[in-house]
Automatic annotation (TrEMBL):
Residues 33-73, 261-280 are annotated as: Disordered. It comes from Halosimplex pelagicum. Pfam families: DUF7405 (PF24152). This is Tat pathway signal protein.
């Protein structure tokens, strides 16, 4: 049974809070609440001092009964997640509920030493040995019991280690190009994105990486990030059907909505293939780029509008609500956006007095009318004030693809007469942070050297 059906609101909120807080005490408490999802290999005093209190220090062991993985069998692409996530009845991918984004500062040598590379690789392989890769490729899986993660590096890291790859554009430059404040750029050297449907899985993985536990899921922790990476920031989030209504203080959010703004995303025709966003040539062939954003959202103003207007602004004014449904469920596998919709934004603006977000960003699709950004998270930020922020993470072959798609959201000169709030969803969003990273292929993920080294 899916954990959505078992958790209930109390557990869901509790786990969200535990992941947001982090630390061994929160991990122990989270394990206890998720015990029936993952099981344990020992009695109820495992991970305590014998009196029910969480142990502290490096002798703490957390043993999650999640099937362990086989690192050598994994794809050479860090971003190969699609085969290892749940798919809904329409074949759309369902990203795991729990998200943990770690912004990292590099503290190692420039360029990195072989010993440092082996240390980072060993730490990452520990996670792959301890947890299965997502669903383990089980096509009938109803939730993601294992762990998915990818590690990307920023321009600041590559500047120190030999040269910035051509596919990577610094976050400051991205912000300038899309008309946003360059001071919102994150200063991370690297970002680790982790996802699972089990909160204690991402928390245990974090604890193992930073040397807070000696064993994780029965696998000894010998290599960690200590001395190479430190945590500059930590962001948690949740995504999934019913979560926004459960965890946000806004009664207007539909109970079954998977996202804060009330509608589904991730339709097959609005997501490129993993092949489509993979770098094809050069020193990082087999990798991709990642844009990680923390966005503010004005939900009160969004929900002040009737459902018909929200649906039109999210998708396309030509699509009636009877075609879309309350949360986009009637669309099935496809968003319904056509090339004609994308090419007729100006005409739609004049006819309907508004334009749709999906309609507008479709203008940035490639020559085959295929999107260029693969969304990997759009989760409610559980470490922020209620309802004010969410995480957005997108993958693309070149950061320029992200830039073009983001620019397509902006208002156009020809529709200046339309109020800002009727230009899709852009007027309801505010960028708080952005980072851009290159995600190397798995064999190069441990402290890669820049292109000129």
């Amino acid at each position: 049974m899916s954990p959505d059906n078992e958790r209930g609101i109390g557990r869901r909120e509790f786990v969200a809070a535990a992941v947001a807080i982090g630390g061994l005490s929160a991990l122990s408490a989270c394990q206890e609440r998720e015990r029936d999802l993952v099981g344990t290999a020992s009695d109820a005093t495992e991970g305590t001092d014998g009196g029910g209190r969480p142990r502290t220090g490096t002798d703490t062991e957390f043993d999650l009964s999640v099937p362990s993985g086989e690192p050598d069998a994994l794809s050479k692409r860090q971003h190969a997640w699609n085969y290892a996530v749940v798919h809904d009845a329409h074949g759309n991918t369902v990203i795991p509920q729990q998200q943990l984004i770690l912004g990292l500062s590099y503290e190692g040598s420039s360029p990195p030493t072989e010993a440092e590379r082996e240390q980072v690789e060993g730490a990452l392989r520990t996670l792959e040995e301890a947890f299965q890769w997502g669903t383990g490729g089980n096509p009938s899986a109803s939730f993601t019991q294992g762990l998915l993660f990818m590690l990307g590096y920023s321009a600041s890291y590559f500047e120190r280690t030999g040269g910035v790859p051509e596919q990577l554009v610094p976050a400051e430059d991205v912000l300038r190009e899309v008309g946003e404040d360059p001071s919102k750029a994150d200063g991370f050297d690297a970002v680790l994105l982790m996802n699972s449907d089990i909160g204690s899985v991402v928390m245990a993985a974090e604890a193992a990486l930073f040397g807070e536990i000696e064993q994780v899921n029965g696998v000894g922790v010998t290599d960690t990030f200590e001395g190479v990476f430190s945590k500059a920031d930590r962001r948690s989030g949740m995504v999934g059907k019913g979560i926004p209504a459960d965890v946000l203080d806004n009664d207007s959010i539909p109970e079954s909505a998977p996202l804060s703004m009330g509608f589904k995303s991730g339709y097959r025709d609005s997501q490129p293939s993993e092949d489509g966003i993979t770098i094809r040539e050069g020193p990082f062939a087999g990798g991709t780029t990642m844009a990680v954003s923390r966005l503010g959202i004005d939900l009160d103003r969004w929900y002040d509008q009737p459902h018909e207007e929200r649906a039109a602004e999210m998708f396309c004014p030509a699509h009636g609500t009877d075609e879309i449904g309350e949360i986009g469920e009637k669309l099935g596998a496809e968003s319904g956006i056509t090339e004609e919709n994308a090419e007729s934004v100006e005409e739609f603006a004049e006819e309907y007095g508004r334009v749709g977000h999906t309609q507008k960003v479709a203008r940035a699709r490639d020559d085959e009318f295929v999107p260029t950004i693969l969304r990997r998270s759009e989760g409610v930020a559980t470490d922020a004030a209620q309802g004010t922020e969410f995480n957005f993470t997108g993958l693309q072959r070149h950061v320029d693809d992200f830039v073009e798609t983001r620019k397509a959201m902006n208002t156009d000169e020809y529709d200046d007469d339309i109020p800002a709030e009727d230009h899709g969803i852009v007027d309801y969003l505010e960028t708080h942070h952005r980072a851009t990273l290159l995600v190397p292929p798995r064999p190069q993920r441990a402290l890669p050297t820049g292109i000129d080294a």
